[in-house]
TrEMBL record:
It is found in: Cell membrane; Membrane. Pfam families: MotA_ExbB. This is Biopolymer transport protein. Its main location: membrane. Belongs to the exbB/tolQ family.
Amino acid sequence: MILFQEATQEVAEEVLSEEKTLSVIDLIVNGGTASVIIIAILFVLLFVALYIYFERVFAIKAASKIDKNFMLQIRDHVSNGKLEAAKILCAQTDSPVARLTEKGISRIGKPLEDINKAIENAGTLEVYKLEKNVSILATVAGAAPMIGFLGTVIGMIIAFHQMATSGGQAEMGQLASGIYTAMTTTVAGLVVGIIAYIGYNHLVVRTDKVVHNMEANAVEFLDLLDEPM
């Protein structure tokens, strides 16, 4: 008899645990129209964040590739007065460093300060290209958690409104279900925000490395022009 009661209790506990288990889709759908709309917005933001991240990663990776002998060849061409050959080499190399070098070569013959200014202006444009749409990623990182929290607040308002209009007769199970379903929007917002934040910081680090490489090569080129021919 005791064994039968224990077995019955275990079966009942399993049934209750199964009843309490909800999938992610159930949590989203049961949250009401407001929850579904907010989750949909967060999914769109997640897609945008991932698209921008991977698009920028590939663009930055391509910009960081350059032949190690590039500056040596430029040095040889400039030292021998072969400026056209140096320009052709820069045109054939698709990288920010090559474009900055080409801008400097086109100014050879002018004061060194003018050449430096031209390279700085070209560098500013290259940095702008590298940072294209990265600010959107930062915006998603900040906005997604707030949008998720907005969904939770709306869900809480609806739950307490049900309690108020029911004259205190609202079932606690329904209220609790509505509340933890509404909390899913906060979780979704935090997940999207964290992904976007990590992606943004990774892109900033990668971009800084490319910018540092650009500055180093620009200084090397200016030192080349300052050497006595």
